[in-house]
UniProtKB/TrEMBL annotation:
Native organism: Coemansia helicoidea
Protein name: CWF complex protein sap62
Top-level taxon: Eukaryota
């Protein structure tokens, strides 16, 4: 109604007044307010998706599962460096949120941002466990991550040769070799 129209008129008058004052503030003493007001968003024409390769890896000593991502950006410029970030399932709006997953995003202009849906487990951020590397010669971005292992007891057998602590598996149980993090299952003995 009338209030809305009055507010629009006030806003138009204020914008016109600010537009006249803006050239005077563009000097060196303009301050922080002018820097944010004059910030222009870059628009880049996207040329498609980059090539990628994902490899499942496992550390034999720590028994940690991990992933190795290799993303190739052949058309990226010299000054551009690819970026990555983790996104919660609740941040994205493409699929219904599922707390069992998170997303790993890779971005570099002029390519589209790509995302990989991974398990929502804690990532091991210790040195040597989580790393990324951008090779400007081959234009390949590599990222390696390992998921933290569940809490376990002291590794290896005791003096008698039997496993100790959380690593001990009672007799009559079997472990799934494809997913050792699942609880051991009892075997039927008759």
């Amino acid at each position: 109604g009338k209030k809305h129209q009055a507010s629009l008129a006030r806003r138009a008058a204020r914008d016109a007044r600010d537009a006249e004052a803006a050239p005077a503030r563009t000097g060196a003493g303009a301050g922080a307010g002018a820097a944010t007001a004059s910030r222009v968003r870059r628009t880049v024409v996207k040329i498609g998706r980059p090539g990628y390769k994902v490899t499942k890896i496992r550390d034999p000593q720590a028994r940690q599962l991990g992933l190795l991502f290799e993303v190739t950006y052949p058309e990226v410029t010299e000054e551009t460096k690819p970026r990555h970030r983790f996104m919660s399932a609740f941040e994205q709006h493409v699929e219904p949120p599922n707390s069992q997953y998170q997303y790993l995003l890779f971005a570099a202009d002029p390519y589209e941002t790509i995302a990989f849906k991974v398990q929502s487990r804690e990532v091991d951020m210790r040195p040597g466990r989580f790393w990324s590397h951008w090779d400007p010669d081959t234009r390949k971005f590599t990222l390696q991550l390992f998921f933290r292992s569940p809490a376990r007891g002291p590794p290896g057998p005791d003096a008698s040769g039997t496993p100790t602590g959380a690593n001990a598996v009672p007799t009559g149980t079997r472990i799934n070799p494809l997913d050792p993090y699942l609880a051991p299952q009892q075997t039927a003995r008759g």
